[in-house]
Amino acid sequence: MGPFDILKHILEPGGDPSLLEIGDNLKTYSQNQFVINRGLAQSIDTIMFASEANKLGINDPDFHFNFMFHSIKKRKRFSKWAKKGEATSEEIEIIQKHYGVNKEIAIEYLSLMDPDDVKLLLDLYAPACEVPGKRAQNKRK
What we know:
- By secondary structure, the protein is mainly α.
- It is built from nine helices and no strands.
- It is 60% helix and 0% strand.
- The longest helix has 11 residues, at 61-71.
């Protein structure tokens, strides 16, 4: 049983409170406690339970499971997992080319730059005749 199955037992109605007593579920839970906390942190109504478990330093898998199972109201949750937001690859490639840096440093540069500076670089390095309209107009001037 994986961490997502355990999360389903914690969050949704019909979960089994004696789940960890069956087979290797206790071992699976203890190995994936971080992922389970991360999964609980994805929903607005369960993030505080994950935070409290982290603050209290609950390391015992049985105690952690029981705390989560009996504290969180059972219902279906449809929140998606947060993804790392990333700038467009075009912006990153242009910054890499202009400053001669790798991708990680280009992403850091992008976070420090003003939107006007990024637009200036995009206009400077925009390929000619790529898409009629946006940047091609600036090249014609």
